[in-house]
Amino acid sequence: MTDRLDNKKDQVVGSVKEEAGKVTGDLQTELKGKTQKESGKLKDKLEDAKDKVAEKINDVFDSDKK
User: Fold this and answer.
1) Residues in contact with 4: Cβ distance below 8 Å, sequence separation at least 6, in sequence order
2) What whole-number distance in Å separates Cα of residue 23 and Cα of residue 56?
3) pTM of the model
4) Which of 17, 21, 23, 25 is the most buried (most CB within 10 A)?
């Protein structure tokens, strides 16, 4: 669960950095924000994939017990 919270935090902080970069005209800060935001999104998708794989594996083991 902490991974998901960290991912959301990265998305929010990244969005704030991106906007701050836009407002101040600092292209590096804007880019760092975009990168951090997208990284959080990708990590979130990876967590979803890991959950789905674990669910499928559990289903296989549960079906063998029947």
Assistant:
1) 44, 47
2) 46
3) 0.80
4) 17
Query: For residues 4, 12, 32 and 26, what is the CA-based torsion angle, rounded to 10 degrees?
Result: 180
- The rounded distance, in Å, linking the Cα atoms of 40 and 10 is 5
pLDDT attached to residue 66: 61
Pick the closest to residue 19 from 5, 6, 38, 32 (CA basis): 32
Contact 4, 41 (CB under 8 A): no
pLDDT digits (tens, 9 = 90+) for 3-41: 999 999 999 999 999 999 999 999 999 999 999 999 999
> Is-contact 21 27, C-beta < 8 A?
yes
Residues with Cβ within 8 Å of residue 38, at least 6 apart in sequence: 14
Phi and psi dihedrals of 25, rounded to 5? 75, 15
